[in-house]
Amino acid sequence: MRIATVGSLLRQLRCPYVTGQCSTSASPAVPRLDVWKQGLRGTASLPARSSWHRTFRVAVRNSAVASGDSYSTAELYRAVEDHLGKLSTAPSIPSLEPVKVVISGPSGVGKDAVIKALQASRPDLHFVVTATSRPKRPGEVDGVDYYFVSKEQFEEWTRSEELVEWALVYGEYKGIPKAQVLDALARGTDVIFRLDIQGAQTVRRKFPDAVSIFLVAESEAALVKRLIDRKTEPMDKMITRVETARQEMQHIGEFDYVVLNKDGDLQGAVQQIDAIISAERHRTHRIRWQDSASNQPPNRTSGPKHMLEMQKC
Ligand SMILES: Nc1ncnc2c1ncn2[C@@H]1O[C@H](COP(=O)(O)OP(=O)(O)OP(=O)(O)O)[C@@H](O)[C@H]1O
Fold first, then answer.
1. Between these two residues, 312 and 125, which has the higher pLDDT value?
2. Ligand 1 probe mutation, 195, 230, 239, most atoms within 8 A of CB
3. Does domain 100-286 match CATH 2.60.120.10?
């Protein structure tokens, strides 16, 4: 039996030096290259369903020997490096650009409820804490649900441009302090914004790559029932909210996704939002390639000359 190293075999099998026949086998599971060169016959089997550099087996036979031989993983790994140059151990995904997610929808649809439930299941996300001048509702915690600040303090922040966005909504200020957002993004943490329609428009203008989700109830009637049950608004304010909600529904088309927050199925809405965030996290344009100024994956196609030659056969 005549045994060659994989490297030397492949060198011998290079197509330009082959005299005689060069063909791939008919079996799609194990493409095979049969080569005759003078007195030597070589067979390279390339298992197609596994990572070829780990399982690549080469049996070399001269015309007198019927069976092949196999090599250890380390030998094969070395042979592959021999052939293609040093294999890179750099991570395939160096790092990912964090996702900015805007969750919006009409008043009473359940933005706060959804975000609270999402917080419990996704502690890895940064949930932007909005600052507001409205009074605290029972059960709300300063710094957790909102930063509750005075109108004077809020106006001072707007003057010193310390807010990503802000608005006067139903006579109260609401806005997002800048520092927490920039800090989270710098740490590579995904950021979730909870915003009304107006705020969502501003944030999308400032962060055009933000992913926006519009939350809806199953009907206008269901939305009003939620507002009534919440017992936080007097009748005149509630009517204003419902009127505004009608106008806000016209903006659905500006958003990337719509999620139904069905009555009694808060978790269903949370799961859908979770799935959207996960999918968005895996978009290829979020990969930050560190070894290229153009943010492109490194080019590793220059090495495998023999493989390319084999494919040409
Ligand atoms: N899927 C649901 N099923 C039943 N009730 C819900 C659901 N989602 C939210 N709610 C209830 O509806 C009411 C309104 O929800 P929430 O306060 O979260 O709305 P919101 O969109 O944040 O409103 P606003 O913009 O006015 O602050 C709350 O009492 C909440 O508990």
1. 125
2. 230
3. no
Residue type, 197: I
- Backbone φ, ψ for residue 231 (5° rounding): 55, 40
Return the structure tokens found at 259: 């999620």
pLDDT greater than 60 at residue 275: yes
Question: How much is the ipTM here?
Answer: 0.98
Residue 100 vs residues 49, 125, 128, 203, 212: alpha-carbon distances, Å: 38, 10, 10, 10, 8
Higher pLDDT, 228 or 65: 228
The pLDDT tens digits for 15-42 are 333 333 333 344 444 444 444 444 445 5
User: Sign of dihedral through CA atoms 268, 270, 276, 279?
Assistant: negative
Average pLDDT on 186-199 reads: 93
In this structure, is the dihedral angle defined by the CA atoms of residues 125, 129, 130 and 134, taken in order, positive or negative?
Answer: positive
Ligand 1 atom with the shortest distance to the CA of 105: 21
pLDDT of the residue at 52: 44
Specify whether 137 is catalytic: yes
For 299, counting Cβ atoms within 10 Å of its Cβ (0-12 exposed, 13-18 middle, 19+ buried), the class is exposed
Q: How far apart are the first and last CA of the chain?
A: 26
CA 271 – ligand 1 centroid, Å: 16
Span(s) in the chain for CATH 3.40.50.300: 100-286
d(CA 246, CA 243): 5
What type of residue sits at position 3? Answer: I
Mean pLDDT lowest among 56-65, 107-116, 142-151, 171-180: 56-65
Q: Where are the beta strands (DSSP E) in the chain?
A: 22-24, 32-37, 40-45, 57-62, 100-104, 126-127, 130-132, 146-148, 163-169, 172-177, 191-194, 211-216, 257-260
For residue 64, count other CB atoms closer than 10 A to its CB. 9
Whole-angstrom Cα distance, residue 192 to residue 158? Answer: 22
